């Protein structure tokens, strides 16, 4: 069975000030063409269909167009909700839409109810695990403490239990939206840390033939059987080194997996340039970036006059301008933001406690801080779901 694995469309999201709906529409066209060209048997979309719980009307219209075009193909499509989606909104009309071959899986309680597809070698069971916000689903899965690993493990126990009731030789595919250990993140994914831990081990998914992951925006393989497709378009300059693509997965009769990447059309390349303003304007090696979307980091010791206007004369698609004067690490002028770069909320809070009282928090106090951050994230998620 040939499966096209994609995720993280983020319909409605802009790239800095650039409206991406045109590029997102072009991607949908490319997806449909890929299904036809490569004789795809099933399409899987592993979450973050929309960029926010209440998407703009234009994004909803594009999703509606995508549903119609996918249904017209006559190729089954499975979609799960991600942490950016409103599961309830995305899942409206799922039963009716399913009759057209578009299977929406947004209810955690249904994670062990597969969509069964067949090929010449028998059945393949597709299980959709929507994004599982631990604080909201721990009761459903009977776990004592909310945590990503605990709820995912419980969901996968249900999947394996159902799979055990299927005919011998039934192959299996799981769609999931999570941060799996070993994955390489970028700046454009929303933090899903709970209990101080964001990632879950890939071993949680043992026992199935292929795991189609969403959430991280870089296309990557955690193992041969556990892969992220990544986002089809860039959504931050941290993705400048990404090759935007989808996975074309061949699931053999014995459950072995072969996969190749299918590139996605990107409207412009990304470039992250660093140097003094005069260096960026004069360096002939940078000519290849003149039509790219540019993030320029200026290292001038004194902020130059009209830097954006001067940069856009050479790089007309400059979208981000950062000032980072080169100074010694112990220079008091080093910015607060720079000192905090790469540190988690938990680490920043613990550093503050240490600064205020001269001693860091003990284990109990760390747990209190961790629970407080988890409670805020859970409240924010619940508020979005309720909108």
From TrEMBL:
Keyword tRNA processing part of the UniProt annotation: no
Segments forming domain Calcineurin-like phosphoesterase: 1-218
Entry's Gene Ontology molecular function annotations: exonuclease activity
CDD domains xref list: MPP_Mre11_N (cd00840)
InterPro entries named among the record's database cross-references: Calcineurin-like_PHP, DNA_Repair-Maintenance_Comp, Metallo-depent_PP-like, Mre11_N, SbcD, SbcD_C
Subunit structure: Heterodimer of SbcC and SbcD.
Gene: sbcD
Domain Nuclease SbcCD subunit D C-terminal: 267-355
Family, per entry: Belongs to the SbcD family.
Species per Swiss-Prot/TrEMBL record: Streptomyces viridiviolaceus
Protein name per its UniProtKB record: Nuclease SbcCD subunit D
Domain of life: Bacteria
Keyword tags: DNA recombination, DNA replication, Endonuclease, Exonuclease, Hydrolase, Nuclease
Protein purpose: SbcCD cleaves DNA hairpin structures. These structures can inhibit DNA replication and are intermediates in certain DNA recombination reactions. The complex acts as a 3'->5' double strand exonuclease that can open hairpins. It also has a 5' single-strand endonuclease activity.
Name of one Pfam family that matches: SbcD_C
């Amino acid at each position: 069975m040939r499966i096209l694995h994609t995720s993280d469309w983020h319909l409605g999201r802009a790239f800095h000030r650039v409206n991406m709906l045109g590029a997102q529409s072009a991607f949908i066209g490319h997806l449909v063409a890929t299904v036809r060209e490569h004789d795809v048997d099933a399409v899987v979309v592993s979450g973050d269909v929309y960029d926010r719980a209440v998407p703009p009307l234009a994004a909803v219209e594009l999703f509606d167009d995508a549903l119609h075009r996918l249904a017209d193909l006559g190729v089954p499509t499975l979609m799960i909700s991600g942490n950016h989606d409103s599961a309830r909104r995305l899942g409206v009309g799922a039963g009716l839409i399913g009759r057209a071959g578009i299977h929406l899986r947004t209810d955690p309680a249904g994670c062990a109810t597969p969509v069964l597809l067949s090929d010449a070698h028998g059945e393949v069971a597709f299980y959709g695990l929507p994004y599982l916000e631990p604080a909201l689903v721990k009761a459903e899965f009977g776990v004592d403490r909310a945590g990503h690993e605990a709820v995912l493990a419980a969901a996968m126990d249900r999947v394996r239990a159902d799979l055990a009731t299927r005919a011998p030789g039934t192959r299996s595919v799981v769609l999931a939206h999570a941060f799996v250990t070993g994955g390489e993140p970028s700046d454009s994914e929303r933090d899903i840390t709970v209990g101080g831990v964001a990632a879950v081990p890939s071993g949680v998914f043992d026992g199935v033939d292929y795991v189609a992951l969403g959430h991280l925006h870089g296309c990557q393989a955690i193992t041969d059987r556990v892969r992220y497709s990544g986002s089809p378009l860039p959504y931050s300059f941290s993705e400048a080194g990404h090759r935007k693509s989808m996975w074309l997965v061949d699931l053999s009769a014995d459950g072995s997996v072969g996969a190749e990447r299918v590139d996605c059309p990107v409207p412009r390349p990304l470039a992250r340039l660093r140097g003094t303003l005069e260096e960026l304007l004069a360096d002939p090696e940078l000519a290849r970036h003149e039509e790219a979307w540019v993030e320029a980091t200026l290292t001038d010791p004194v902020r130059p006059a009209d830097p954006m206007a001067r940069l856009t004369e050479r790089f007309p698609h400059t979208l981000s301008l950062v000032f980072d004067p080169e100074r010694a690490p112990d220079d008091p002028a080093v910015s607060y933001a720079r000192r905090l770069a790469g540190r988690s909320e938990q680490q920043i809070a613990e550093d503050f406690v240490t600064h205020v009282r001269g001693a860091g928090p003990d284990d109990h106090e760390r747990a209190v801080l961790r629970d407080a951050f988890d409670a805020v994230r859970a409240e924010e998620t619940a508020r979005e779901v309720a909108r």
